[in-house]
Amino acid sequence: MALRELGLAGTVWLGLQRQIAVRKSATALSGERPTVHEHYQSFSVARSPTPPRRIVLIDDVITKGRTLLAAAARMQGQFPHADIRAFALIRTMGFERRVEHLIEPCEGVIRWAGGDARREP
What we know:
Strand order of the largest sheet: 1-2
Largest sheet: 2 strands, antiparallel
Number of strands: 6
Radius of gyration: 15 Å
Structural class: alpha+beta
Strand content: 25-35%
Number of helices: 3
Low-confidence stretches: none
């Protein structure tokens, strides 16, 4: 809703909803974080007045990209012709010894690779 108030979104549709709670990745050990499949199973898609042509998924933090990959897959199943993109305010950097820039906008891709989500960069 804040994006619409800032003039950065024309239409806001809360189309993706959690039906089943999943563990928070931020508080889980790396081997205990929810899988893409768990996220996918937890989502449902709300009815849309008209099929959207473009969908932008918004998340606060992206680590591996599992949540966004599952959300995109769920939306793609419901709207196969939609162009689906994602935006995250923060991306984790892993175990960096030294952070060069606190603000470093980037553009990347999340793919399914080796049975898990892979974020580049």
